[in-house]
C-alpha cells in the first residue's frame, strides 16, 4: 500500500533541504536497538519492514513504496526510542534523507510537512492494526499454509489468485499477498501471475501445525 500524502509541492521543497541517497538491493536500513537519526521519504524502490519474535517467527508488517515514509522511523524520530523491527531494501532504493535536527525544524515550522507526516503515520497505524489482527491474533499465516497443503494434492502448481484465496479464508488480498511474499522469501513457494508453485511442502506442513507442537 502506497500512501499519497507527499505532494509534489512538498517533495520539491524537501529536495532543497534533504539529501538523495542510493541504497543497494538487500541492504538493511535499520534493525532492533538502533536509533532513528534520518527520516527517509522513498522516491523509488521498496523497503520491507518486518519484526521477528523471540521464537524466530518473522512477520512482515508493511512495505514502504515511492513517495511514502516509514511509520516505525517516524515513531523513533518523534520519541527517541530505538527501532523494534528490521527494514530491508527490496531492489535498489532511492530516498530523500532528512536528518533529525532538520526533521524537527520542519515539524515546528512547516504546517504542510507536519500534516503529511502525521497523516501518513495515522494511516499506517490503521493498516498495522489490521496486520496484527490477521497475522498475530488469527494466525492467518498458518491458515494459508494449511490451505496450500490442502490444495497441493493435485500437484505443486496451484492456479488461483490472491483475491480468491483471501475470499476463501475470510481475509484481505493485501494480507494474502504479504504472507505469500514471506513464504516466497523463505523458499516455500514460487509466485507467478495466477500460479503459486509449492516448493517446500514439508515446511508448509510444519508451519501450519506450529500451535500443535
From TrEMBL:
<feature type="domain" description="Cyclic nucleotide-binding">
    <location>
        <begin position="10"/>
        <end position="124"/>
    </location>
</feature>
<protein>
    <submittedName>
        <fullName>Crp/Fnr family transcriptional regulator</fullName>
    </submittedName>
</protein>
<dbReference type="InterPro" id="IPR018490">
    <property type="entry name" value="cNMP-bd_dom_sf"/>
</dbReference>
<dbReference type="InterPro" id="IPR014710">
    <property type="entry name" value="RmlC-like_jellyroll"/>
</dbReference>
<dbReference type="Pfam" id="PF00027">
    <property type="entry name" value="cNMP_binding"/>
</dbReference>
<dbReference type="InterPro" id="IPR012318">
    <property type="entry name" value="HTH_CRP"/>
</dbReference>
<dbReference type="InterPro" id="IPR036390">
    <property type="entry name" value="WH_DNA-bd_sf"/>
</dbReference>
<dbReference type="InterPro" id="IPR050397">
    <property type="entry name" value="Env_Response_Regulators"/>
</dbReference>
<dbReference type="Pfam" id="PF13545">
    <property type="entry name" value="HTH_Crp_2"/>
</dbReference>
<keyword id="KW-0238">DNA-binding</keyword>
<dbReference type="InterPro" id="IPR036388">
    <property type="entry name" value="WH-like_DNA-bd_sf"/>
</dbReference>
<dbReference type="InterPro" id="IPR000595">
    <property type="entry name" value="cNMP-bd_dom"/>
</dbReference>
<keyword id="KW-0805">Transcription regulation</keyword>
<feature type="domain" description="HTH crp-type">
    <location>
        <begin position="138"/>
        <end position="202"/>
    </location>
</feature>
<keyword id="KW-0804">Transcription</keyword>
Amino acid at each position: 500500500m502506497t500512501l499519497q500524502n507527499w505532494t509534489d509541492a512538498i517533495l520539491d521543497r524537501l529536495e532543497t533541504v534533504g539529501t538523495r541517497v542510493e541504497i543497494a538491493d538487500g541492504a538493511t536500513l535499520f534493525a532492533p536497538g538502533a536509533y532513528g537519526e534520518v527520516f527517509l521519504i522513498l522516491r523509488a524502490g521498496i523497503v520491507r519492514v518486518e519484526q521477528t519474535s523471540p521464537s524466530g517467527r518473522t512477520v512482515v508488517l508493511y512495505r514502504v513504496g515511492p513517495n511514502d515514509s516509514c511509520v516505525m522511523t517516524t515513531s523513533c524520530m518523534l520519541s527517541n526510542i530505538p527501532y523494534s523491527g528490521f527494514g530491508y531494501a527490496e531492489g535498489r532504493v532511492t530516498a530523500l534523507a532528512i536528518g533529525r535536527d532538520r526533521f524537527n525544524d520542519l515539524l515546528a515550522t512547516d504546517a504542510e510537512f507536519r500534516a503529511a507526516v502525521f497523516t501518513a503515520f495515522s494511516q499506517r497505524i490503521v493498516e498495522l492494526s489490521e496486520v496484527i489482527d490477521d497475522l498475530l491474533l488469527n494466525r492467518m499465516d498458518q491458515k494459508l499454509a494449511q490451505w496450500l497443503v490442502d490444495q497441493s494434492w493435485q500437484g505443486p502448481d496451484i492456479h488461483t489468485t490472491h483475491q480468491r484465496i483471501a475470499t476463501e479464508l475470510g481475509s484481505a488480498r493485501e494480507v494474502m499477498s504479504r504472507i505469500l511474499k514471506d513464504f516466497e522469501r523463505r523458499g516455500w513457494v514460487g509466485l507467478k501471475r495466477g500460479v503459486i508453485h509449492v516448493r517446500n511442502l514439508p515446511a508448509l506442513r510444519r508451519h501450519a501445525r506450529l500451535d500443535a507442537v
